[in-house]
Amino acid sequence: MHPGHIKHFQAAKEMGDVLVVTVTPDVYVDKGPGRPAFSEELRVASVAALGCVDFAAINKWPTAEQTLRVFRPDIYVKGQEFEKGRDLTGKLQREWAVAKEVGCEMRFTHEVVFSSTKLLKAHFKELIGSLNGITSQEQDTVV
Question: SS3 string of the chain?
Fold first, then answer.
């Protein structure tokens, strides 16, 4: 979690009464080798520690589709980088379709955006490599 995530959660909380945040399970994080950098348990505990978050959980599924069907929220909030609906994986488009199906309004925050991958590469490559048992020669391909 980085400052961009925190600002996103704070802005999302301003849009509704209760903020529920789910994190992607480790098995479904598709950011490449050595990711996620932190376990799902540590990620959800970090999110839950934020004052703006009312409830935090580990999602059971690879996307928010089923979660939206279960919770049926009034509002589903994504960051501004998703506002134009451009997602080559199709995950975002499927989530939008489910949000519409359950009568959920899509909204977007407009806060500072960071890339977790770029931050990890720039500042934590050595640490992550050592935590994952990766040699320094292999680290350039991991993060």
Answer: CCHHHHHHHHHHHHCCCCCEEEECCHHHCCCCCCCCCCCHHHHHHHHHCCCCCCEEEECCCCCCHHHHHHHCCCEEEEEHHHCCCCCCCCHHHHHHHHHHHCCCEEEEECCCCCCHHHHHHHHCHHHHHHHCCCCCCCHHHCC
What is the distance between the alpha carbons of residues 23 and 136, in angstroms, rounded to a whole number?
29
Q: Which residue has the tokens 């903020």?
A: 19
How many folded domains does the chain comprise? Answer: 1
Q: pLDDT of 68-83, one tens digit each? A: 999 999 999 998 878 8
Model confidence pLDDT, tens digit, residues 94-130: 999 999 999 999 999 997 665 555 555 555 666 555 5
pTM: 0.75
Q: How far apart are the first and last CA of the chain?
A: 15
Of residues 106, 79, 74, the one with CA closest to residue 10: 79
User: Domain containing 17: what range?
Assistant: 3-141
Cis before 36? omega within 30: yes
